[in-house]
Structure formats: C-alpha cells, structure tokens
Design a protein that fits this description.
Radius of gyration: 12 Å
Strand content: 15-25%
Order of helices and strands: HEEHH
Structural class: alpha+beta
Helix content: 25-40%
Largest sheet: 2 strands, antiparallel
Distance between the termini: 33 Å
Number of domains: 1
Length: about 60
C-alpha cells in the first residue's frame, strides 16, 4: 500500500469491476453502497437502481 487513492468513474461496469478491488455505487448523485466488486454487483438496491424493480431475479 503506497497511500495512493485513484478515483475512476465510468459506465462500462464490467471493465471497471475487473480492474479494482473496491467499488462505490452511486445513483443520481446519491451513495448506495460500497465493497468488493462482486458484492456490490449483487446488491439488491444496486440492481434495482440500475436495472429496475425485480432485477434481483436476474443476478
């Protein structure tokens, strides 16, 4: 750990998820959750925010 933070934003989530050890999810400027990429990608609130209600069945 070099004490360096890199802030990266993007809309190609699959690529970002493979590059980083930790993700912060936001929707419409509001914080949703944070954690390891797989955990965030499977979060019910994140799925609903990005894919709509009922999308947790797709995960």
């Amino acid at each position: 750990d070099d004490g360096v933070t890199v802030f990266m934003t993007g809309h190609v989530l699959r690529e970002l998820m493979n590059l980083v050890p930790r993700v912060i999810a936001m929707h419409q400027g509001k914080y949703i959750t944070e954690g390891p990429p797989q955990e965030v990608a499977n979060n019910k609130i994140v799925l609903e925010a990005y894919l709509g209600k009922g999308s947790e069945q797709l995960a």
